[in-house]
Write a structure and sequence with these properties.
mainly alpha, about 110 residues, globular, single chain
Length: about 110
Amino acid sequence: MVGENETVPRRYTPSIAPSEDVRAAMSVFQVNSLRAAVIRDLALHPEGSTTVESAARLDVDYRQVYQHVQVLKREGLLRLAEADGSRRGPVYLLDEQVLESRNRAFMQHLLGRD
């Protein structure tokens, strides 16, 4: 994680490199690699995650994760988990159905089937 006096990196580099096909698709569609990593992290943690927890796993500053979480929440891909008081901060859950629906709609559009 980035310390208080350190600069925030301008480009996220995943610790586990995606496959060549995934990298190619991300390049073609100009996917933000950190936003994709946040989505993947939330998918891998179906119990939900705080921005601090995701940031620690992704080895980035929590403020970077927070910015992407706000976009994803605004677009309906995330929802808040019920608060149980055991974790500090809001816990976000990925809505996989919405993600899959958006993906299908995008593919239908690309293929001229919408």
